[in-house]
Amino acid sequence: xxxxxDLHKQYKQIKNxxxxxxxxxxxxxxxxxxxxxxxxxESFSSYLDCKHCIGVGNGTDAxxxxxxxxxxxxxxxxxxxxxxxxxxxxxxxxxDLEVNFCDVDPREHIITIENIKSVVNKKTKAIIYVSLYGxxxxxxxxxxxCNEHGIYLIEDCAQSHGSIYKDRKVGSWGxxxxxSFYPGKTLGAxxxxxxxxxxxxxxxxxxxxxxxxxxxxxxxHEFVGRNSRLDTIQSAVLLTKLNYLDHEINKRQDCACHFxxxxxxxxxxxIFNDHLYQSFHLYVxxxxxxxxxxxxxxxRGIPTGVHYPISLPNLKAYxxxxxxxxxxxxxxxxxxxxxxxxxxxxxxxxxSTSVNEVFKKYNK
Length: 364
Prior knowledge:
By secondary structure, the chain is α/β, with parallel strands linked by helices. Helices cover about 40% and strands about 15% of the residues. Helix 6 links the parallel strand 4 and strand 5. The longest helix is centred in the N-terminal third of the chain and has 22 residues. It is globular and about 65 Å long. The two termini are about 30 Å apart.
């Protein structure tokens, strides 16, 4: 049986290195704010070529805290792509701001300048750019637009660890960016974890204080914050895995190239962007009759996923937020294929052959 993702294989790769770090943690009982936390923050900010990295409890916290650090007043709105995970919108709502959904490009699955211009208004104070599946485009244009109109650019990089757009790492374009280290991510912890990235000293200080009960020094609470920490164990895992991230991305690129070459031309596949080195957190195609296609592939021993089956404005949580036909259409067709360094050439050939046969059968 082919696996969609093989976390155990990843663990075996880093086991010996990680055991050394775990022994240090246990010997020193340094479970909170141990040395591996600051070491990971420094290493990850260096990897992204950014000034600040603030480790937090999870990716949703990273988004919420990043937005809070911008000090946007209630009554204003933030543009959010209708095609994303709920955390992208949830973080806006939990800051008492209005979610301003916009539709996405039908092939790229992300927002464009045209999408933004169709919904932006006087109350728009920020744009959340989601580099979905690791794909990014138009970041330079969107950043320029934001600068011209006094709008913050927030990058939601939960799926784009290591992607590079026009010689800059995704996550380094925004005023502030948020990462998730959920175990299934391309850079994943052994539990929850997240990080905030910025080159702005003021936003970095504010974010770290918000995540640490509104303080810099112990018991010196300047405002009401929250408790959101990236713990030492997860930091040790991430610090170790970071050394293998580029290798993993290269392998995912190889998988994507295989699919590009071997999947039938009439299957809507991810776009290869000349300006982007994509990390391919997910490899997503589009099919009709998805439930039947997915079931038959499962019977052939090929697991698949759906990211995401309901567009955000169609969720009960965001009812009456408008109609977004492209995102709604994508939610009914997207199908994620296995991708990653755990797949052999034989696995990739089996996946490609099976997908071609099943697609031809149900997508006439």
